[in-house]
Structure formats: C-alpha cells, structure tokens
Amino acid sequence: MTTPTIELKPSASPLSDAERAAILANPGFGRHFTDHMVVIKWTEGRGWHDGQLVPYAPLSLDPATMVLHYAQEIFEGLKAYRQPDGTVATFRPEKNAQRFQASARRLGMPELPVETFIEACDALVKQDEAWVPAHGGEESLYLRPFMIATEVGLGVKPANEYLFLVIASPAGAYFPGGVKPVSIWVSEDHVRAVPGGMGDAKTGGNYAASLLAQAEAAEQGCAQVCYLDAVERKWVEELGGMNLYFVYGNKIVTPTLTGSILEGVTRDSLLQVARDLGYEAEEGRVSVDQWQTDSANGTLTEVFACGTAAVITPVGTVKRTGAEWTQGAGEPGEVTVKLRQALLDIQRGTAEDQHGWMHKLG
C-alpha cells in the first residue's frame, strides 16, 4: 500500500508574532492551538490518501457520522522540544506511532503506517515551528494525533471511512505552580478497564469512563483518581490518565501490563532511565493494602505518576474508604526529582541521548 505525500496548503493569515508571543507567555495546557493541522483520509478499497497540511479549522460532520454513535476514535500525545542550538526534536514519535497502530487494531480501525504518522507530525511542527517555546523551561509543543470514523450511517460495524488528523498546542506545566505532590483517591467502586477490554488502547472511551470517579475524587478533596484491577479489586493499576511508580529505596516498581493498563511511553522510558541511573527498575504487582502498609512502615519511600502531559508528578496524600496517609514526607522525593530531571534533560537536549529517543527535524 502506498503512503500519501502531505500536500502543504498553509494559511494566508497565520497569527501575528505579537499574538503568538502573548499566548506563549502563558500557554496553559490544551487551551490554544497553532495555525495549522494535518489531515489524511482513509477509504475502504483505496487506503490512505489526500494527505494535506491546512489551516486549523472546525470539522464539518453529518449528524449520523459513525464516530458520534459508536465511538471509533483513538488518539496519541507527544511533545516537540526546542533544543539548545535552536532546532526542534520530538520525543520517541515511533513509539507513539506503534501504539497508535495497536489502538487502531483493537477498535477495528485501519493502521496508519509508522512513517506516515511521523511524517504528519514533522510536517506540522516544521510549518508551525514558531509555536515551539524557547529552550530553557519546561514548555513544549504538545502534538495530538487522532483518528475518527467518518462513514455516515447507523449500522453497527467498523466504518469504511476514517479521518486522521494532527493538531498542536503549546504547553506549559500540566500542574501549574511547580512540582508539587498530588493527592490521590483510590476508587474501590469503579474500574477503568477490564481484562479483554480496551484498557491498553488509547481511546476516548477510557477517559470518559474515568470522569465519574474523577469527580468523586474531587469530592474527597483529591486531584487524581487511582484505579484497582477489575477482578479482585485489590491490585493498583493506574490513574485516570497517568501510570504509577512505587519507589522502595533503590528499587523502582511499576504495575505490570495486564491488558487493562495503557502502555505509557513515559512509563517505558523511565524504566530505562532508572536503570541508566543505577536503580533496580522492574514491573510487578502492588496491592492497595501493600501500598498503605509499606507507606506506614517506611519501606515504600516514594510514589510518583507519569505521562506525556505531566512528565513526572510526585504523589503526596492518598485516600481510600476509611483510611488516609501521606506518602513519605509529603514532598517530592529524591528519586522522583532525579528521574524527572534526567528525563527532561534528554528531552531538552542537555543530556546525552544514548538511546536515540529524540527525533530531530531537518
């Protein structure tokens, strides 16, 4: 199957330098978008075609468009960073492309070739390079590739038409105010995903399923919700949008991928970064009771969450029905801070990229 070349049709009236600078001074997260987007169509019998870079604009969808009824939708998230020499590089785009393919398989959607995924991201970043924040801080350009079913009809089946898009948004800190521990509510009534379900696919339905429990977490005074496994309701899986890590001194453990946990790119990267720094890093199972007990007796020294948007965020207060505890001293732990800095240094080009993770744009 041939892959489409992306035709450039840039905007004749992009945002002015002054307007863009004002946005970049305080971008927030996911509030502002760059001047362009990439769109590629897929049609049964024809495959991928009509790849274009066009001005950012609303989509026009028929009310019977299948994504609106049967939720065939997947997405990714990755970042572009300004490097010390002024160039731009994205972090492990091939990993996101491969996960995008896995998500597509799970939802019965066509798989976008890895090289086309990367080409689409590159085209948008090159066109809107002025939107990539300056080197030095934690700001970046967040890329959101996604795909939706666009066939019109109400028959329950995989669609025969799809639209792949990439949009971009300048991103500041996901949790404003610096690296401060977040509070966690352990949900023992709701689950995020079940074995054999879609937990390991990056699809909007998984996030919709998390919103009720997230609201309950807010009612408990917590910023994030933690999910347990769906079968025994005892094993820690992940947060609504981030993976978890447990630090036992020099040993670092993240929940084993069970098919109901999203295989995070940051999660995977930190396993390697931790080993590079001399820590023992592994996958394993941690129960919520073990979490509570080990925090109380001091053997569990730190807990942190990780994801593309938030990078690494320490966990402070943890609440569950009938119990509450503070993780460690309630401040960012030494290992958490060290790992966070090491990963950011690679992404920002101030440390050696010994694993070839940074994809430099020509």
Automatic annotation (TrEMBL):
Keywords: Amino-acid biosynthesis, Aminotransferase, Branched-chain amino acid biosynthesis, Pyridoxal phosphate, Transferase. It catalyses: L-leucine + 2-oxoglutarate = 4-methyl-2-oxopentanoate + L-glutamate; L-valine + 2-oxoglutarate = 3-methyl-2-oxobutanoate + L-glutamate; L-isoleucine + 2-oxoglutarate = (S)-3-methyl-2-oxopentanoate + L-glutamate. Its EC number is 2.6.1.42. The modification N6-(pyridoxal phosphate)lysine is found at K202. It holds the Pfam family Aminotran_4. InterPro entries: Aminotrans_IV, Aminotrans_IV_CS, Aminotransferase-like, B_amino_transII, BCAT-like_C, BCAT-like_N, BCAT_family. Pathway: Amino-acid biosynthesis; L-valine biosynthesis; L-valine from pyruvate: step 4/4; Amino-acid biosynthesis; L-isoleucine biosynthesis; L-isoleucine from 2-oxobutanoate: step 4/4; Amino-acid biosynthesis; L-leucine biosynthesis; L-leucine from 3-methyl-2-oxobutanoate: step 4/4. One of its GO terms (molecular function) is L-valine-2-oxoglutarate transaminase activity. Its cofactor is pyridoxal 5'-phosphate. NCBIfam families: ilvE_II, PRK13357.1. Belongs to the class-IV pyridoxal-phosphate-dependent aminotransferase family. PANTHER family: BRANCHED-CHAIN-AMINO-ACID AMINOTRANSFERASE (PTHR11825:SF44), SUBGROUP IIII AMINOTRANSFERASE (PTHR11825). This is Branched-chain-amino-acid aminotransferase. It comes from Streptomyces aquilus.
